[in-house]
């Protein structure tokens, strides 16, 4: 009986982990590291958005601050061209995912989220404003 229950619990745990991983990185969102974002910012003029709430110190070069749960309210602040690459970050990553979902629903498809958010940017020694 115990072996049977352990198999059920193991299968359930695996299902939860697999589901959580796919939720964290939806197909319409690309996740990039702090080093990758820094390199892109050195070579391109990008549209960088801080979506963390409450407001925090911004990565140097941030174009816009919009709370992750108010994206649709501020949709006129985003590029008119829906193909424009939009780079998002929060403190740790989840708010960036939520903001990306709202932007995707508005028709944007070139979306990036900073893996580990501003915390990873800070940990890698990059600049804030």
Shape: globular
Biggest sheet details: 5 strands, parallel
Query: What is the CATH C level class, in words?
Result: Alpha Beta
**Name given to the CATH architecture:** 3-Layer(aba) Sandwich
Radius of gyration: 17 Å
Straight-line distance between termini: 60 Å
CATH-assigned homologous superfamily: Rhodanese-like domain
Topology:
Layout: H1 2-24, E1 29-32, H2 34-43, E2 47-50, E3 64-65, E4 86-89, H3 94-105, E5 111-114, H4 117-123
Parallel strand pairs: 1-5, 2-3, 2-4, 4-5
What's the short story on this structure?
This protein is 40% helix and 14% strand. The protein has 129 residues and is of the alpha/beta class.
Structural notes for this entry:
With 129 residues, the protein is an alpha/beta fold. The protein is 40% helix and 14% strand. A five-stranded parallel sheet has the order 1-5-4-2-3. The longest helix is centred in the N-terminal third of the chain and has 23 residues, at 2-24. The chain is globular. It starts with a helix and ends in a 6-residue tail after the last helix. The relative contact order is 0.20.
């Amino acid at each position: 009986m115990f072996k049977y229950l352990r198999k059920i619990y193991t299968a359930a745990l695996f299902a939860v982990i697999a589901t959580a991983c796919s939720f964290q990185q939806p197909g319409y969102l690309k996740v990039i590291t702090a080093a990758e974002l820094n390199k892109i910012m050195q070579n391109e003029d990008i549209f960088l958005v801080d979506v963390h709430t409450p407001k925090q110190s911004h990565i140097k070069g941030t174009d816009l601050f919009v709370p992750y749960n108010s994206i649709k309210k501020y949709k006129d602040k985003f590029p008119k061209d829906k193909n424009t690459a939009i780079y998002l970050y929060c403190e740790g990553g989840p708010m960036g995912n939520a903001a990306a979902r709202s932007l995707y629903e508005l028709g944007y498809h070139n979306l990036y989220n900073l893996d580990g958010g501003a915390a990873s940017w800070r940990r890698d020694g990059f600049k804030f404003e």
